[in-house]
Structures are given as C-alpha cells and as structure tokens.
Write a structure and sequence with these properties.
Elements: H1 19-37, H2 40-65, H3 80-104, H4 116-148, H5 150-162, H6 165-169, H7 191-212, H8 216-227, H9 243-267
Length: 305
Amino acid sequence: MKDEHLRWFAWQPRWEAWFPPLFALLVIGAIWLGGRRLSLADLQALFWLMAALCILLPGVHAWWVKRRPPEFLGISEQNWPQALGAGLVLGILLGAAQVYYGLFARHELFIPELNLELVVMMLALLLVAAGEEMLFRAWFQRLCEPAWGLVPTFFLASLAYSALLLVFWDSKVTPLPILYLPAGHVPGLPFLTNLGIVFCVALALNVLYRVTHSLWTSILANVLGRLALLLVWPYQTLVVVPPALMAAVVCALWAVTIVFLMRWRASFAAPPAPAPTPAPPARAKPMPAPHHPATTKRSRGGKRK
C-alpha cells in the first residue's frame, strides 16, 4: 500500500472505483429484500452467503483482474504487532462501551457456556466480520482512494457501512440476531444515535486500516466489539436454527473461502531458487611453444643483417 502517492482529495474517475459501492448496495439490498420474504433460518443463510461473497469477489478481482497478491488487500503479516495492538485496543473499547450500556439498561451479566451453539455463532460472526472488513475497508479503499482521494473514500466507505443499519431498522424485515448488527451498534439506543456511533466506528476502522496497512486490525476490533454483546444479551435467545444445520452451512462457506485464499496466496508464492549449476571442469593450460631464435643471415663482411 506504499506504492502510490495518495492525495487527501482527488478526482481521477476510474471505472473500477465504482465496483465496491455498487456491490455494497447489492449486498444491503439483497439482505433487505430477503428479510421481507425469507424466514430467519433462510435469512441467516443469505447473510452468511453475502459475507462469503464479500471475501471471494474482492479476492477474485485482485487475483485475476489486477494480478496482485493477497497483500494488495492487507492480507499479510506486514506490521502485525501494530495491527493486532490497535485492533485489540479499539475492540476492548467498543466491547466495554457495549457491556456498560447493557448493564446500565438492567441486563444481567451473562457468562456463555462452551457448546455447539456458541461455536457456530463464533464461526458465523468471524465470517461476517471478515466479509464486512474485506468489502468496506480493503476493497473499498484500495480501489476508490486513487480515484477520489483519502477523505472522500473514508466518508463514503463509512456511510456505506452505516447503511447496514437500515436493514435492521425496517420493522417489516425479519429480525436478525444482535451479533449480525454493524460494529458499534448498541441495542436500545435511538436509530440516529446508533447511525452516528456506527459511522464514527467505521471511520476509525478505515483510518486504522490505512495506517497499519493490515486488514487484521479492523477484523479483530470488529469481532471483539460484537463478542462483548454475548455478555449482556444471551445468545440462546438469538439462535432459532438447529445448530447442526448452522454448523454445516457456516463450515461449508468457510471451507470454500479458505481454499480460495490458499490458492490465491500459492499462485503468488516465490518460485524455488534454481539449483546452482556445477562449474565446468578446469581445462589444462596449453604448453607454450618452444622458442627458437630466428636465424639471421650473415653478409659477406661477417655482419648480421
């Protein structure tokens, strides 16, 4: 991400810069329409499918169209101490704020049990968080920043991420579990207040992604902030789909995603260094020809010519 000199504001329209906003609208629209017509089980499956597509589509574009390695989207070990440290700090702050409000709203502190439902919920949450960060952070910023500049891209990406709240705000949409709400959302607050909080959280995640050049920062902060909800909103009240079916669907999507990422990284792996060629055998130096002094003719007076 250091190969381009980016401006705060720019206007260099590129056709590929419209891909992330249009795909974000497609994802939000699909979930919104599905919530009006599908049951909760089908809606969760659709949500997971959209999350997997948010990982696969940017990867396919970077791999086959841009011909760039996973590091192009921040999937690398670059700056990993700073990335994990920043994500841990922001995730703890988000989680603490949500737990504090949950207890303030007279919810009891809940310690979840380790069982199949919790494992499935964790896998689903990680898939959703990774898909959101790949779309709204990595792909959005990498394609839009050169065309529009840093500030407009930060604003548009944060606004698009905040638009996910519209799916949950519509009373006609089948309610999804709380853990699928955008990072920073606090249940119980007014809609406009939550919209502002989610926008600020998304803006902070965008800036951290730009500073650390790593996608792991925003993924870690996103996951930790949402996991804190389990301490004040029991997940048993949110799981209505059989855990075995949920596990099968989530694991299948994860398997496809992981295989794709491994093949993507392997295609850009450095080729093995060629074996050193043996040096040719030393040749014997040719022996110098014997030196025979040139014979000189003598003149009649006995002198050499």
